[in-house]
Amino acid sequence: MEMKKTLLVRLLVSSFLASLLAACAEVGMQQALITDVYVEDFQSDDMQSCRPSDVPLNHRQARDFFRRARQVDYSVIHDHYEVAPCSVVGTLKYRNHACNWLIDAGATAQIECNGKTQYFVCDDCEDLFRDP
Question: Which of 9, 26, 38, 121 is most buried, with most CB under 10 Å away?
């Protein structure tokens, strides 16, 4: 009986680790598909409350943002994040396709490629929003 429990625990741990590795590999592949991140401009709907210093991302910081960010459905952003009225915008390549992106001061982002929009959030990017 004890041997069956040990075997079951090992099987469960193995299954969990395999799932975790697969998820990490998928995130790594997603990040590897994004290249040539270029910051083009700053935009704001309210210059009094949201200025360029609120989103001081340069090319490297924008690339790092997308490396750390996770892709989510728009409803996650809508329900759990505050979207700021200013952002930096630019271009990147995703799977060798030219795409437009936007990162706002609330650490949410979107990439638009071929008419399809993907949404991202980064919960560990505070250091990227400081002056370089």
Answer: 121
> What DSSP string runs through 83-128?
PPSEEEEEEEEETTEEEEEEEETTSEEEEEETTEEEEEE-TT-GGG
Q: Would you state the pLDDT for residue 95?
A: 86
Full-model pTM: 0.72
With beta carbons less than 8 A apart as the criterion, state whether 8 and 51 touch.
Answer: no
Concatenate the DSSP letters of all residues of 33-84 into one string.
Answer: TEEEEEEEEEEES-TTT--GGGS---HHHHHHHHHH-EEE-HHHHHHH-PPP
Neighbours of 84 (CB within 10 A): 19
Dist. CA 96–CA 93, nearest whole Å: 5
